Amino acid sequence: ITDGAGRRELWVTQDEARIPVRLEIFDRRTAERRVTDYVNWQSELPIPDRFFEPDPKAKLEEMDHLEYLRRSVDRGTVGPVPVLYTPLLFKRE
Length: 93
Hints:
By secondary structure, the protein is of the alpha+beta class. The chain is built from 2 helices and 4 strands.
């Protein structure tokens, strides 16, 4: 995806599973490039739901879309990880 914010490019395996192997993000505003390589994937591995329950000591924060928009204007990136699909959050014409 390329837009006014920058470019997000995802590499996936060519088989039916389409497993991500690399994600590259370029931020136009900061000219920063981030790359994440995925290694050692496991597939069809049963994982119980309790695995995804957060540690009770973890500080989680929940916000609605309007709060997300307000913070993104005030601070730029919201949270420790940038949102990959900003076109789903922001209406672009």
